[in-house]
Each structure stands twice: as C-alpha cells, then as structure tokens.
Amino acid sequence: MQCSHLAALFALAAAAAACLLPGAAAAGRGLAGSQPLLATTKPWDDKKPEYQKPLIGILAQACHYCPGRSYVAAGFVKWIEAAGARAVPIRYYHSEAELHRLFKSVNGIIFPGGLTDLWMDSPYVVAARKLWTWAKEANDAGDVFPIHGTCLGFQLLHILEANVSFTELLVDTDSVAHASTLDFEEAAQESIMFGTMTQELRRKLSNPQLNISMENHMFGLPPAHYDKWPALRDNYNLLTTSKDRNGVVYVSSAEHKRYPFTATQWHPEKPPFEFGMTEIPHTLDAILVSQHLANQFVENARKSSHRPESPEQELADMIYNHKAWFTLKDSVMDPSYDGPDMTYFFDRPDDEAPANRLQSGQGADAAGRRSAASKSFAGQLATAGAQQSKGEAAVHLAYATELARYVEQVDFSVSLHRIFLDDEGQPRQKPTALEKEQAFALLIQVALRILAAPILAFDMADACLAALHRTISELTRPAEGHAAGGPQALLLARLSSTVLHALSGSGSCSHHLNAVLRCIESMTSTPQTAALTQLTFAALEHHTASLDPGVTAIDLQRLCSLLELHASYRQIQLSGMQGEALSALQSTAQRAIRQLRALGPGSDAAFLQRRTGDIPMGAGRLREALPELREALRLATAEKAHAATIACCLSVSTLLMSGADGPRFSRQECWGCGRPSLTLRKCSLCHEAAYCSRECQTRHWREGGHKRDCAGRANNR
C-alpha cells in the first residue's frame, strides 16, 4: 500500500514538473519537483572526504600558432579554484611513467574544451585513454577518482567509451557562441550534476527566455547514437539534450553509471571567468549553475586517496609555476576571437619554469627512455651537433616537426576495421583486391608510425587482427602474385608481419622497432638505421584519399628508394669507407635519387637536392657539396619548408665553418664581441683575427688592443 502511495506521489511530482519546466512537456519527460532532488546513492557517496587540498589535473592541448607547445585555458583553473581545489597541468606528450606519476599525485582530472583533433590514435587521445583507464581501475579498487569533460572533453569521454572515431560518432551542429537551454531527461534526477540542484535553478536552465547554458562547439552527439553504440547506452546516463540554431538535437549533459565521470557539451566555467565573447551569460543564475557543478566535482575529488610524492614535488607540479597570459587582447585585432581571456602556455622556448621537464630533459620513464614527442621537442631546441653525431642533428631537426604533426592526423584502426569488419563487427567475406591494396597502404602507414613513435598503441578488435593475419599471409604467397612482384612487395610483407605483431601487443614496442629496422637492413644490406622523410609521409597520407592500386605501387617504389637512399647515406656517414666501397655507396645513393626524381617532381625537390649535397659532404668532398646544398637551401626557402630550411642552414653552415668556401670562415667566435657567427671575416693584415662586423673590428682595433697585436704578428711573419 505504501509503495502505491509513493508511486502516485512521484507520478504527481512528474506531472507538476512537466507543467512548470519549459520544454519538459514537449519532450514527454520531466524531473521530479522536489527541492532539491535527492540523487540515488552512488558507490562513492558513502565515502567521506579525506583530503582538503585536492589537486586537479588538467590535460593540456596542442598549441597551434601560439607561443608554446601546449596550453590550458585559465578559466578551468579558476573554476576549480572557486570550489577549493588547485590545478596541475598534464602535458599530453609526457612519457607514460610521468603521466602515471602525475595521475597518482592528483585527485581528479579535467578534459577541457578546445580545438584538438580527436583521432583515436593521436598522441592526445592516447594520453587521455591512459588516464581514463587508470581512473577506472582506481574506482574499481574503491579509490574515488572523478573525471569531468567539457565540450571537446565531453566528446573525448564518449569516444573513449564507444571506441569509435569522432567522424562516425559526431555530427555537425551550429552551436558556436550559442547561449542555449537544457532539456532534462528522467535520469537527471539521480545524477551527480543535477540530483542536488534546486528545482528553481533547473527550471531556469530549461527556460528559453533565459538561456544560461553556454554552448560553443561545431559538433554534437545525437541522442540516437546511444542506441547505435551499446557501449554508450550501457555505461552512460543521458541527462540533458539541447538544440542548435537549426533545431538539431544533441546530448548536452551525461555521466557514467558506475564511475564519477561527468560530461557537459556546454561550458560551466565560462560565465564566471570568460568575458571575451558577448554571448556568454553572466547572470547570477549562470554563476550559481557554474558554482554548483564545480562544487560537486571537487567534493568527489576530496574523496580520492592520491597524494603527491613530496611537498617539494607538489609545489613543482602546480600550475602556479607558469605565467598566465592575457590572451583576450587578441580580440582587439581579431573581432572573431573566441578563445580564453587568460591562457597558460607550456614549454615555450624561453620558459624557465621549474616544472618544464621536457626542456630540461626529465620527461623520461623509469628506464630513462624519453617519449618520441619529448625527443622531437628536445631536438628542435638542441644546438646542432651538441649531442648527435655529424649529420644526425640535421636529419632529426628536419623531420621532427613533420613527424610530430603527421602522427596526429590518421585514424588507422577505424580505417582497417572498415575494410575487414562489417557494421555488426563481424569479419567480411573475401575482401576485394582493391580493399587488400587499401589495407596494405594503411599497414605501411602503421609501420612508419611504429618507427616514428614506438610508444603508440592501437585499438584493434580480435576479428580485425585475424583478418589482417590472413591478408598478410596471402601477401607472402607467390601464387598470389605479390611476393613475385619484386623487393617492394617483399619489403611490404615483412613490414606488415612486424606491424601485426605490434598491433597484437606481443613483445615491447622497442623490440618491434628493431625488427622493422632489421627488415630494412635485410633489404638494403646497410646499418640498422633509417630516417623517414616528410616526402614518404605525404605520399602515404594520400592513400587515405585515393587508395588507388596504381598509387600504392608507385609509393611502394618510392618507399624502397627512400630507404635505400637513407641507408646508403648513413653508411657513408658512419662507416668511414674509402676507395671502391665508398664509390659504390655513392653510386647507390645517387641511383636512388634518380629513381625518386623519375617518379615525379614535387614537394620533394628540396629534400632530394639536399641529399645530392649530403652525399659528397659525408664523403669529405666539401667544395663539391657546398653549391648543391646552397641550391637546396634556395629551394627549401622558396617552398617555405621551414624544417628543411633549418637542416639546409645547418649543413651549409657546417661547410662554411669547415673552410669549404675559403679560410675566412674558419673561426666560430668574433674576436671583438665574442659571439658565435657564421659570417666571420679575417683581418687583412694578420689573417688571424676574425670579426662578425666592421663595427666589431674597428672597436677591437682601437680599444681592444688588436692594433698592437696585429703589428706584432705582422712583424713576426
């Protein structure tokens, strides 16, 4: 009897809410009208707060066209500070060991909004997946660890849960700079975010005359996709929906059913702290909503048992070691600016913050191995030749930036799944020859990624791996016509086999990297080393658009020629061969250059010209190399290929300082000011003192004592 009375009361409350809350009646759903709602007990509700100084990690995003490698919008920092927490920046390019150390030091994590691409295999998503996985493991062990995702972070949490590319999960929405409403679903009454919110505030969130939720996104998640991907339906509660300017409905609030993971497509942090966009609401109600969500998130963070390793480490990790830049000033020059008012930039070239581990070289794992991103960043800052042998610095500097950019662009796993699995996730029967060519092209890209960044992991279904194994086996059978196709096909088969082992997780990444290099060695009879170029990446990336078998064959030839060229060039550099052996290596490298040029001119012109000069340079014929490298520098400058320009400058400078263009460049430091220079001119009298400018020479002659010294040297001669 009591149960029937309770049911009637809840039904009455729901009916009242449908009448009071705008949009609720139209949606056929509403919230109970209690004041406030009492959420259903969650596993972490009974745990008392343990830590009154919680630290919240904020995952920094890639920084494009700004003074740093990554950034965090200061609005998120202020948002958690208003609830009594402190912020710790987490760079996505940290080593796994450093990521885990920071995870054990913080009490919660924010995946913020931003503009970073969400390809499943991008370094940003890979880092987020690690943090997300560790958070689930901690909660399963009874250690409360909350995550909140805003805007892009909302989308990221759903991508991680569904394990689906954002190109399939999201749709276009017209919601940039759009103050809107929230239409509540029934599950909201038992949620972390809204379960204890007052009825009045919920009503205002739904009122289209107030519009106190701030949307600022180009993509959205349709509610129907919760049914399309069962992982979302089974693990997330859909709390609210919203509409864009064209009436497209998308999920605007959600939270995990088992973990304290919350997500808002809208921005609760903007109303109190962001004033650059005129559409942001700053009413008291908008501020109260923002404060409520921050309080709920930070209160769960207080229940985490994570602690910093030491008081000193705690201070070093916090964001206060970095300067907040007043980026709103950009709006004076750009009326369309919609970025944050204040921004923290990390790993600037002039950054002296104590927590800058990448620049100081501390971003390493327990074994001292540094991540590919860390190596690339350090390589760009390093002085030529400081820690690398001759030629290695030029190669590294030339490709580090392009490698880092490339590995963020392609979603391999999704593309391979489309080839080998149907919509139900079952193996497709007998892929066509064209589809096999597509798979081979993608496998080459995966192989290159293993070489470029062996720390990466790939999400592959067992059925897809099995299909890959069958396809690779077919590739090595002469009856299929592949293995008989020459060294290109054989190299592809060996690379594909290595990739399969790497994808299946057998052995360490470094082991598979060595296996790929051994494969290259067996094909070219050269040392176990190869530098992969921007040219190869650009050609292989083209496969994702055309995937034409003819293009595949051409690019395989290009790949083999590049590997042959690099291996020959490296052997010339490192082996110290003389006579006929050296001439044979030079002929091999020059033949590879001719083959690459025959495949078609294009953006590789500067690179091939540079290698034309690098070959005699490596053999010690400096005067022969100088004009070739000067021409390469001219081509790279004309093409605005900045990484190649840096490499050419290094090579030309090395030649000039080695005396390839006369003795006046034989000294590195100016005798007058002491600064290094690449254009020193010798004194015409003593032929020993060298100066970077006429002003330095005049000053040193008059005030530095060179007039006396020069006369003495001339007399001695």
TrEMBL record:
<dbReference type="InterPro" id="IPR015527">
    <property type="entry name" value="Pept_C26_g-glut_hydrolase"/>
</dbReference>
<feature type="signal peptide">
    <location>
        <begin position="1"/>
        <end position="26"/>
    </location>
</feature>
<dbReference type="GO" id="GO:0005773">
    <property type="term" value="C:vacuole"/>
</dbReference>
<keyword id="KW-0732">Signal</keyword>
<keyword id="KW-0479">Metal-binding</keyword>
<feature type="region of interest" description="Disordered">
    <location>
        <begin position="343"/>
        <end position="369"/>
    </location>
</feature>
<feature type="active site" description="Nucleophile">
    <location>
        <position position="151"/>
    </location>
</feature>
<feature type="active site" description="Proton donor">
    <location>
        <position position="267"/>
    </location>
</feature>
<keyword id="KW-0863">Zinc-finger</keyword>
<dbReference type="GO" id="GO:0005576">
    <property type="term" value="C:extracellular region"/>
</dbReference>
<dbReference type="InterPro" id="IPR011697">
    <property type="entry name" value="Peptidase_C26"/>
</dbReference>
<keyword id="KW-0964">Secreted</keyword>
<protein>
    <recommendedName>
        <fullName>folate gamma-glutamyl hydrolase</fullName>
        <ecNumber>3.4.19.9</ecNumber>
    </recommendedName>
</protein>
<keyword id="KW-0378">Hydrolase</keyword>
<comment type="similarity">
    <text>Belongs to the peptidase C26 family.</text>
</comment>
<feature type="domain" description="MYND-type">
    <location>
        <begin position="670"/>
        <end position="710"/>
    </location>
</feature>
<dbReference type="Pfam" id="PF07722">
    <property type="entry name" value="Peptidase_C26"/>
</dbReference>
<dbReference type="Pfam" id="PF01753">
    <property type="entry name" value="zf-MYND"/>
</dbReference>
<dbReference type="GO" id="GO:0046900">
    <property type="term" value="P:tetrahydrofolylpolyglutamate metabolic process"/>
</dbReference>
<keyword id="KW-0862">Zinc</keyword>
<dbReference type="GO" id="GO:0034722">
    <property type="term" value="F:gamma-glutamyl-peptidase activity"/>
</dbReference>
<dbReference type="InterPro" id="IPR002893">
    <property type="entry name" value="Znf_MYND"/>
</dbReference>
<dbReference type="GO" id="GO:0008270">
    <property type="term" value="F:zinc ion binding"/>
</dbReference>
<feature type="compositionally biased region" description="Low complexity">
    <location>
        <begin position="360"/>
        <end position="369"/>
    </location>
</feature>
<feature type="active site">
    <location>
        <position position="267"/>
    </location>
</feature>
<dbReference type="InterPro" id="IPR029062">
    <property type="entry name" value="Class_I_gatase-like"/>
</dbReference>
